[in-house]
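Technical annex, item 7. During the second reporting period the consortium partners agreed on a shared format for inverse folding records so that results from different sites could be compared directly. Each record opens with the tokenized structure and is followed by the designed sequence. A conforming record, contributed by the partner at site C, is shown below for reference.
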């Protein structure tokens, strides 16, 4: 009795091909009408142009007739951004956009409907948003022409730049002798300080370990230096880290003795500077920052500022006035 032989076993390759064929056969055929519709092309951004050198705020804000100021461009955006259908690009052409106050953006300046308001450098442009202004009209103060002054009017600043380099506010020598701390300031032995003008402009700078405190002087009478409050009170609250004797005195006309130092007499609106070797104030670019915050996004949790971008812009020359207040600068 013969037993029929078993059929030959298919190879692994043929089995795999069969599985793939069955899987392919099980896939549904996509009907032409089921394909996703092509997405509509995003419309190009609306362009608004600004030029600080060639623009006019009475113009239409086009490339040929740009606006002149950032503030006017922002106000124009407020008129057209309520129901945006595309991005709005505020194109800044080359030049320096000098601010006299903070450039403030509120929820009214936000992008809407998922679109953005973009403040950016125009192609190939190099715009600078600056909080500083140039000082000119320097005249020598002394016969040796070592100190010069220029009228700057109503100005408060803690920084001065000459050809882009930060210079030093007038200061005395380090660790001056003859100071003993009291409850309200210092006892001093150098009675020449009593004759300083604008005593309340002067600051005591005191370094201790990793801390550096700045407290303004209230007045100087004879051998008594009275410090302004609440700065001096607060500077003595940290036990073991209280303010010490001055590391140096700063911001008095009488302290100018080194090239590169400057002093602002706010009472007279006069700026004094002792040029460094090789500096010619007739040709040098002297800049004083007038604005502390260049840009402020002023929103709240319920009404935030959103959908705003900045691209390719240089921000320069902001001052920092907080240490000039009655609170001074107390670290720690």
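Designed sequence (site C submission):
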């Amino acid at each position: 009795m013969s037993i029929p032989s078993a059929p030959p076993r298919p190879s692994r390759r043929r089995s795999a091909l069969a599985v793939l064929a069955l899987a392919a056969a099980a896939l549904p055929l996509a009907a032409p009408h089921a394909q996703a519709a092509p997405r509509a092309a995003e419309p190009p951004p609306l362009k608004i142009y600004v030029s600080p050198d060639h623009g006019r705020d009475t113009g239409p804000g086009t490339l040929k007739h740009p606006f002149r100021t950032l503030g006017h461009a922002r106000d124009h955006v407020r008129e057209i951004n309520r129901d945006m259908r595309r991005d709005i690009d505020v194109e800044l052409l080359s030049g320096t956009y000098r601010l006299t106050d903070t450039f403030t953006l509120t929820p009214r300046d936000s992008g809407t409907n998922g679109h953005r308001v973009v403040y950016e450098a125009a192609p190939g442009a190099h715009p600078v948003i600056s909080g500083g202004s140039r000082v000119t009209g320097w005249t020598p103060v002394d016969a040796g022409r070592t100190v010069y002054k220029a009228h700057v009017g109503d100005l408060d600043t803690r920084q001065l730049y000459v050809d882009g380099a930060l210079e030093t506010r007038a200061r005395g020598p380090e660790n001056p002798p003859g100071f003993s701390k009291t409850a309200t300031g210092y006892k001093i032995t150098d009675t020449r300080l009593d004759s300083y003008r604008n005593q309340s402009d002067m600051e005591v700078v005191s370094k201790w370990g990793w801390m550096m405190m700045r407290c303004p002087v209230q007045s100087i009478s004879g051998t008594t230096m009275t410090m302004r409050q609440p700065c001096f009170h607060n500077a003595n609250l940290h036990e073991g880290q209280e303010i010490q004797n001055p590391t140096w005195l700063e911001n008095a006309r009488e302290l100018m003795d080194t090239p590169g130092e400057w002093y602002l007499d706010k009472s007279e609106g006069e700026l004094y500077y002792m040029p460094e070797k090789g500096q010619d104030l007739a040709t040098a670019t002297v800049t004083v920052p007038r604005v502390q915050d260049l840009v402020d996004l002023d929103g709240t949790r319920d009404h935030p500022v959103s959908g705003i971008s900045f691209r390719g812009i240089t921000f320069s020359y902001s001052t920092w006035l907080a240490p000039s207040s009655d609170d001074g600068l107390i670290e720690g």
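The helical segments are 12-26, 70-80, 231-234. The chain has three domains: 46-131+292-319, 132-170+256-289, 179-255. All partners now use this format for quarterly exchanges.
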